[in-house]
Amino acid sequence: MLSRILATAALEFSIARRNRWVIVSVAMMMLFSLVLAFAGAAPAGQMAVDPLSVTVASLISLAVYLVPLIALLISFDAIAGENERGTLALSLAYPLARTELLLGKLIAQLAVVSIAVVAGYAVAAIVAFVTGGTGAAEGIPALWRLIWTSILLGAAFLSLGHAMSCLSRRPSGAAAMAIGLWLVMIVLYDLGLLAAVVADDGGAFTTDVFPWALVVNPADAFRIFNLAASGAVDAASGLSGAASSIAVWKPLAAIMVWPILAAGLARLSFQRVTP
Amino acid sequence: MTILTLSQLTKRYGDTTVLHDVSLEIVAGERVALLGHNGAGKSTLMKLVLGLIQADGGRIEVAGHAPGSPVARALTAYLPENAAFHPAITGREQLRYYLRLRGQPVRLADELLERVGLADAAGRRIGTYSKGMRQRVGLAQALIGGPRLMVLDEPTSGLDPVSRREFYTLLDELAAKGTAILLSSHALSELEARTDRMVILARGKQVAEGTLAELRADAALPLSVTVKPRNGQARRVAEAFPTGVVSEDRVIFSCAPAEKLAVLEKIAALRDHIEDYDVHAASLDDLYSHISKRAA
């Protein structure tokens, strides 16, 4: 079983490398991190925190948008593409279980996301050390937390991408669904919550539903956990005020559970696919 | 030994019955061709045999095991119709992957590619391959591990005549070693009569089964006889064969297989008036279209 998963992962990683997904993802993360590392350093002058922590706080907002996007872009083709090429029927005629095929792809694509995340944050960290000196070392725990939570966030969205890939007959349809999912979960979800909070004006929604709604979305859970854990202030998010009022274990649990939940969802969707 | 058993297999998609009561047995070393137009149910039958889809009625056994079970999958090789492997990887990488899935050593990849004539292209990306070359990659992966049952969906499509011949030689070798082979085609002429038995499907129904000789005898298609009279003898010859049509100084008529000898005797008796003659048996395509039409 393990050898078949690893064989699938190895082949999938070769494909990702040749398709330039690795290069594109790393370049995207590095470029945006670099921009934020310089831009984020400007307002930090008055604050008593180290430069790396400031950089990490900016990177949180970046990761919330970029990591799910990269994950969905890498994963949407996984099943629909194979089905269109006719290789899905072949793979499934082999002694290869659907779970093994899906896991192999997930491992390879998670490796790509991890490389991109580490490379991007490393660039930002180096800038923080160069400009801030050894004081930046205080921010290392926050950076480490950002790295592993980003990888978990990526895992959740990779599996969601796989689910989209299973539910769509063609890769083009899967791409559209993946982008739609990104828009809804990353952009519209927060806007919707904000609008609801404003409309509710401190009512039951704001006190009872809103804190849970924030935690249930993996991207928001990721943001809140990182902000709360590092005690940083996120200037880019209107939701930051809420972060302080939510117990840290809640978003942490959401970040941990989502990759498993999404993988299960992908596996269930895969069962519906007829090659 | 029976490798594949299908009995009263039925498959429906909604209201459409794509396979109706199909029964078939293939023993070890036997090559069976599945013939039919596009949409006749060939690919559906194959996917049922592989366990990729489930039947609505009937029974399938692969060497006594359920289709799609781990044992059945380990015994079966498959070549899908028009398999297009990922263009970014090389032929060698693709084969190494399939070898690993079957728990075979990856060093066999080059050997397999050489067997299908792709040794020189092993290190090139599949994106640069022609259709025929991709088909050979598919064939190479089907050879892994000496399968007991091979299921080949239109294996010769995209192959040139020489490659097609090589392909059938390869099948002969496999069959000689005891592999049961089920292959599909949409034209009888493509098979070059290199299979032991044929099963013809039309709209999901089994309309004919047997060897080429049996199918020919059963159809009893007339032969076409062309007689070329000597100069000035056209009228004399035409009178001798009243059913004939005269065209471009030749007399053409058809004759039932049973009357073949009688016609030849008549031609021999007219040898002074005849310059040349030809007898054509019905072609494989004629035979196939006759059987398909009869079924309809």
TrEMBL record, chain A:
Q: Any idea which UniProt keywords this protein has?
A: Membrane, Transmembrane, Transmembrane helix
A Pfam family reported for this protein in Swiss-Prot or TrEMBL: ABC2_membrane_2
Lineage: superkingdom: Bacteria
Q: Membrane-spanning regions, if any?
A: 21-42, 54-76, 106-130, 142-161, 173-199, 252-270
Which PANTHER family does this UniProt record tie to the protein? ABC TRANSPORTER PERMEASE, ABC TRANSPORTER PERMEASE PROTEIN NOSY-RELATED
Q: What is this protein called?
A: ABC transporter permease
Lineage in the entry?
Answer: Bacteria, Pseudomonadati, Pseudomonadota, Alphaproteobacteria, Rhodobacterales
UniProtKB/TrEMBL annotation, chain B:
Alphabetically, the GO molecular function entries are: ATP binding
Q: Which UniProt keywords apply?
A: ATP-binding, Nucleotide-binding, Transport
The record's CDD domains line, in alphabetical order, gives:
ABC_DR_subfamily_A
Report the residue ranges that make up the ABC transporter domain in this protein. Answer: 4-228
Q: Does the keyword Translocase apply?
A: no
InterPro entries per the UniProt record, alphabetical? AAA+_ATPase, ABC_transporter-like_ATP-bd, ABC_transporter-like_CS
Pfam families (alphabetical): ABC_tran
**Entry's family note:** Belongs to the ABC transporter superfamily.
* The name this protein goes by in its record: ABC transporter ATP-binding protein
